[in-house]
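Case study 2.
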Amino acid sequence: MNDSDRSSEIERLAASPWFAELPAALQARIREASVVRSFRKGQYLIREGEHAKGLHGLLAGQTRHVRSAGDSGEVMLHVGEPGLWFGEYALVTRQVAAGSVIAATAVRTLFLPVAAFERLIEIEPRHLRPFACLLGERFALAYRYIAEEQVLSPAERLLSRLRGIVAVQRRDPTDRQPMTISMSQAELANMLGLSRQTLNALLAGLQSRGLIEVGYRSVRVLARV
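Prediction:
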């Protein structure tokens, strides 16, 4: 990859909602302190139970965000597309990572090391607030999913989860165009705790209502978010 392509990737990432809303001084400091890192398919970017190494902004590729669930193995929590920032939980709380992030394809990220993050906060303690807000947004989304688990029908819960994934992945929050989520039905069933047979029936129902289109290892969300 040449410098021009890499610069274009970084500019697209900088236009993501979280980063674009940062104070200009903080944006500049994050750019200066960050490096571009590359990961192979299957490689861990973040490993559950380990201390923070830094914050990632996804430049290219796709990630899988998972958490262990006892003897049941790993549960899918999210799929990451370019524009997503992650790693904030362990960074802000100084606790170990609550889940793992794995490269589903070859991946490149803009990486802010933990030492550079600590220097940013030491220079200007108010810079901590935007990182805490990013963590808060993820908490609010998880809290919503917990509540919906109790009251929504399986079909509406599926649609809500698809809409939630789209909302996180949109680079422009005002965009209301259809958006494709690249994940298999097995992964989606794992995310929702459903059998493949139940998920297939639910997807068919949503498709017949004109809300989604099911493709090969993908779901296109047509309903407005």
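The mean pLDDT is 90.
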